[in-house]
Design a protein that fits this description.
alpha/beta; Rossmann fold; seven-stranded parallel β-sheet; two-stranded parallel ribbon; 43% helix; globular; binds NADPH dihydro-nicotinamide-adenine-dinucleotide phosphate; binds 2-hydroxyethylsulfonic acid
Length: 251
C-alpha cells in the first residue's frame, strides 16, 4: 500500500463523496464505493496516480450485496481505519399528505438502513482490531425539521440518533464516531431531490454562495486527521449566508 491508512467512502461517485475521495487521497489508501461503474472507474484511474485505490460497486440498500462486497476485501484492505458513511439523498419535497411512498422508502432505505448495513460489516473488522473511526454524514435537516422536509429530516434525525448510539456502544472498542452536518451544499443533491428539474434545483442556491463539496471534504479531512486522543463528535457546517434551515440571506 502506498499510504498506511485506509478509508472506505460510500457515495464516492458524486458531490461530497467525490470531493472527499480527492481530499483524502493524500494520506489514505481508498476503497471507493458507489453504483455508477463508469464514474468509479474514472475516479479510480485518476486517484490511483496518488494512492492505492480499489472500488466496490453496490447499492447500499441491498444488504446481501453490501455483505458480499465488503467481505470480499482482501485481508490488507479489511484493515479499514476510517469509514465515511456518505451515500444518501433526498427524494421529493412535499407536504406529508402528498408525499410519494416510493420516495419515503428510498430515503429510509438508503440514508438509514444502507448506512447501518455498511457500518455493520465494516465494524466487524474495526472491532477485531480494536480501532477505527466512523464519520456519518448527517445534515442540518437532522437537527431542525423544515416545511415539507418531513421524511428526509426523519432519516437524518435517525442518523443523528445512530451516531450517538454508535459513539456510546463503540466507546469500549476504541472506535471514534463523528457526525458532520452540512447545510446547503451545491452538488447533485437538488437534482435528485427534484427529479432532474434543473430550474427547481437552481432555485435552491440562487442569490447565495452555498457550500461546495470541497468545503465539506476539508472539514472531513480535518476531523479524520485529528490527533488520536481527539474526537470531533458532532459538527454543523453552514455557508456564511445560511443561519438555519430556513433563514438564508439571498441577494
Ligand atoms: P450527490 O447526489 O451529489 O451524491 C450522493 C451520492 O450518494 C452519490 O454518489 C450517489 O450515487 C450515492 N447514493 C445515493 N443512493 C445510493 C444508494 N442507494 N447506494 C449507493 N450509493 C448511493 O449528493 P451529496 O454529495 O450532496 O450528498 C452526500 C450526502 O450528504 C448525503 O448523505 C446527503 O444527504 C448529505 N447532505 C447533503 C447536503 C447538500 O445540501 N448537498 C446537505 C447535508 C447533507 P448515485 O449517483 O449512484 O446515485
Ligand atoms: C441537505 C440540506 O437543507 O436541503 O441535507 O435539507 S437541506
Amino acid at each position: 500500500m502506498k499510504k498506511n491508512k485506509i478509508a472506505l467512502i460510500t457515495g464516492a461517485t458524486s458531490g461530497i463523496g467525490e470531493s472527499t475521495s480527492n481530499e483524502l487521497s493524500d494520506k489514505f489508501s481508498l476503497i471507493l464505493c458507489g453504483r455508477n461503474k463508469k464514474k468509479l472507474y474514472e475516479l479510480s484511474s485518476s486517484l490511483s496516480k496518488k494512492t492505492d485505490v480499489i472500488t466496490l460497486e453496490f447499492d447500499v440498500r441491498e444488504k446481501k450485496d453490501v455483505r458480499e462486497k465488503i467481505s470480499s476485501l482482501s485481508d490488507d484492505w479489511k484493515n479499514i481505519d476510517v469509514l465515511i458513511n456518505n451515500a444518501g439523498n433526498a427524494h421529493g419535497l412535499d407536504f406529508i399528505y402528498e408525499g410519494e411512498i416510493e420516495d419515503w422508502d428510498m430515503m429510509i432505505d438508503t440514508n438509514v438502513k444502507g448506512l447501518l448495513y455498511v457500518s455493520k460489516y465494516v465494524l466487524d473488522f474495526m472491532i477485531k482490531k480494536n480501532s477505527g473511526h466512523i464519520i456519518n454524514i448527517g445534515s442540518i435537516a437532522g437537527k431542525e425539521v423544515y416545511l415539507k422536509g418531513n421524511i428526509y429530516c426523519a432519516s437524518k434525525f435517525a442518523v443523528d440518533a445512530i451516531s450517538n448510539g454508535m459513539r456510546i456502544d463503540l466507546n469500549k472498542h476504541n472506535i471514534k464516531v463523528s457526525q458532520i452536518n452540512p447545510g446547503l451544499v451545491e452538488t447533485n443533491f437538488s437534482m435528485v431531490r427534484f427529479k432532474n428539474d434543473q430550474k427547481r434545483s437552481n432555485s435552491v442556491y440562487s442569490g447565495l454562495k452555498p457550500l461546495i463539496g470541497d468545503d465539506i471534504a476539508k472539514v472531513i479531512s480535518y476531523v479524520v486527521n485529528c490527533p488520536e486522543n481527539v474526537n470531533i463528535s458532532d459538527i454543523t457546517v453552514l455557508a456564511k449566508s445560511q443561519a438555519s434551515s430556513t433563514v438564508l440571506n439571498r441577494k
